[in-house]
Amino acid sequence: MSLLPARLARLVALLPLGLVGASAWADGASSCRSIQDNDRRQHCLAVAEKSPATCHAIKNDDLRQSCLGVVRGERSACQGISSSTEKQQCLATISANEGPRPETSQCQSISDYDRRYFCLGTVQKQTSQCHSIRDYDMKYHCLAKAGRERFQCHSIRSGDLKAQCLAEVK
Questions:
Q1: Distance between CA atoms of residues 106 and 126, nearest Å
Q2: DSSP sequence for 110-157
Q3: Is residue 14 exposed (0-12), middle (13-18) or buried (19+ Cβ within 10 Å)?
Q4: Of residues 9, 116, 149, the one with CA closest to residue 72
Q5: Domain segments of the chain as ranges
Q6: Residues 4, 49, 110, 144: is their CA dihedral positive or negative?
Q7: How far is CA 165 from CA 61, 78, 162, in A?
Q8: Which tops the pLDDT comparison, 97 or 141?
Q9: Is 53 exposed, middle or buried (0-12, 13-18, 19+ CB in 10 A)?
Q10: With b meaning 16 or more CB within 10 Å and e meaning fewer, what string describes 61-97?
């Protein structure tokens, strides 16, 4: 499995009602612990540790469903997500984890403009896609991941998103 799809998945925990995927790095779980929001921290830990049991501690229904879907690689878990944007992102994340290079068609199906370009930038490893993102923090997170440039994480204002970015980009 490629590290890119795994890292792509972790982003989503920090987006509103977002999704999360796994990080293959040993310090991923320790970086998750600095995330302030409990549900997002649990999601990050569950995916880093590949632990469906940890997903059950998440109170937000959509976030819990996405966690279970991503950790288990089950598309059916995404179907229980009420937000169509979250559902699309859950499916895209699972697709990204299934193969060495996910197709951008999954990213194109994400209706939220910023999330779509984040997905495209990180999947294609093209920072040019990241520059289309309007949200400041999301743009720098994308730039860090797409260009594998950890220093970009330090431009992120949100403490939780910065911690997530630093956990993902080594």
A1: 16
A2: --SHHHHHHHHHHHHT-HHHHTT--SHHHHHHHHHHHHT-GGGGGG--
A3: buried
A4: 9
A5: 3-168
A6: negative
A7: 24, 24, 5
A8: 141
A9: exposed
A10: ebbbbbbbbbbeeeeebbeebebebbbbbbbbbbbbb
Q: Which two tokens stand for residue 149?
A: 């440039």
**Backbone conformation region of residue 84, classed left if phi is above 0, alpha if psi is from -120 to 50, else beta:** alpha
Q: What is the pLDDT of residues 89-134, one digit of tens each?
A: 787 777 766 655 556 777 888 888 988 898 888 888 888 889 999 9
